[in-house]
Amino acid sequence: MDTMSDALPDFDAIYAGSVSVSGDGAEAPVPWNIGEPQPAIGALVAAGEVRGTVLDAGCGIGETALYLAGLGYPVVGLDLSPTAIGRARQRAAERGLSVELEVADISSFAGYDGRFDTVLDSTLFHSMPVAGRRGYLSSIARAAAPGAVLHVLVFAEDVWFPPELAPNKVDEAELRAAVGEFWTVRSVRRSSITAVVPELMAAHAPRDDVGRSLLPAYLLTATRPDA
Asked: What's the pTM value of the predicted model, to 2 decimals?
């Protein structure tokens, strides 16, 4: 695996468009903003694997949170980026949706003890500093209700990134060990993260029927140990 990093990307600058994630300085869309929830997460919703009050951890501009709110789910979206939360709130208002969207450090947030029946981590886990993982997993466990379920969609170890852009991707054993300290892991299966990436990266991955890259990932499902 590539060397893991405790450096935190400037996500607020990325969402504001002042920092490019293409690696070449050119303006480019934020790769994970695809206009809808990640298909792997959408499939969980369709299969009835998302229930009750939902925490969208690292919600970004709210694509998942707003989708769920439109289906009638009570949703809270938390993200470190004020720019992303501002855009998510604007989009919620434009759609007439009621969603609680707040700026928060997901590795140490508080104030939601026992509230959530489902926690969704759609591409957050690999984006945070490795040193923040334990605090994050502890914080979401504290915010989870008895019997809550956690779904984590994260880059797998075989995803290709230019070295200077590589996230903190994981192998299955590493993922199970990290999550298993606070949650009971039920399954880990291969999946994919859909993204609009620079051509250099796109050459290393298959594409979906509209040309977006399908990058190797894991989808983990876990429950609170009291479930």
From this structure: 0.89
